[in-house]
Design goal:
9 helices; alpha/beta; 8-stranded parallel barrel
């Protein structure tokens, strides 16, 4: 079975002391992987030891808000972003993380119209920056996974097809596609066709299972049986990670529209485990 992970954003707004105790809680619930919300590049004291004690595989998810932008026209912004991303990679190396995922090319808070020449320049800066980041990631033993974001978060890459084009220009074997069902619900013309096309490329190396309203797997309007069925059909072997948000987190709602964090985590994990158990029995 795929590693079934949960991002600690389910409980906390970011990477800080409030994360302490969560690796053990996730493991006790039955999750088989943990994802860290990299709002800062360094772990709070004690978390590395807790991750080791939990014994679960680790992935990292970038937090690229305004001011963190690898394709920015300002070289100072690009350098600061590269420093942040490199710090995350070094943390990943220290905890044995396999994947560093997210919108590593630019991130949220960047939405603008550009003329053709500026758009080309922005794209080339993303490609060149990610080539260097891929080299650093290889030194740390970490794969990169690039995530398209919806139009309200960025104007750089909104669809999986755009990210496939970006990956092919980067040309590094440790760079893949991060498919997130929440963003895909907003941007893809056909969710299932987009996922199947992405899987057919062989580039998908990380998967976020999120409802259209940031709920858990099994909730919302996502056709979960068909989505997960495609992962099985194409032999996707990477992590399947819940990315839900506690109030105050990056993509949380303004009111509590979901269950409390523990209940939401159990609901999503129960759905995923039930799906894969039925597949195994079939």
């Amino acid at each position: 079975m795929n590693p079934l992970g949960i991002n600690l954003w389910n409980w906390v707004p970011g990477l800080g002391p409030e994360c302490l105790g969560l690796p053990a809680r996730a493991a006790e619930m039955g999750f088989t992987a943990i994802e860290l919300p990299m709002t800062q590049p360094r772990l709070p004291a004690g978390l590395k030891e807790e991750l080791a004690a939990a014994g679960l595989p680790v992935t990292l998810c970038a937090a690229l808000g305004p001011g963190r932008d690898l394709s920015n026209f300002d070289p100072a912004v690009r350098q600061a972003t590269m420093d942040y991303l490199t710090g995350c990679l070094k943390t990943g190396e220290a905890v044995g993380a396999s994947v560093f995922c997210g919108p590593l090319y630019a991130g949220g808070g960047k939405r603008h119209w550009l003329d053709a020449e500026q758009k080309k320049r922005e794209w080339e800066l993303a490609v060149s920056g990610l080539k260097e980041l891929a080299r650093r990631a290889a030194e740390c033993g970490v794969a990169l996974s690039l995530e398209p974001l919806n139009r309200y978060r960025t104007s750089v890459c909104n669809t999986s097809a755009q990210v496939v084009g970006l990956i092919r220009e980067i040309g590094a074997s440790n760079v893949g596609l991060h498919f997130d069902t929440y963003h895909a619900c907003l941007e893809e013309k056909d969710l299932l066709a987009a996922l199947e096309n992405a899987l057919q490329t062989g580039l998908v190396n990380h998967f976020h299972a999120c409802a259209n309203n940031r709920g858990a797997p099994g909730q919302g309007i996502v056709p979960w049986q068909e989505v997960l069925g495609l992962l099985v059909r194409y032999g996707y072997a990477g992590h399947i990670t819940m990315e839900t948000f506690a109030l105050g987190g990056l993509d949380s709602s303004w009111t509590q529209v979901h269950e409390e964090p523990d209940a939401l985590a159990r609901a999503g994990l129960g759905y995923l485990k039930g799906f894969f158990a039925r597949k195994a029995d079939a």
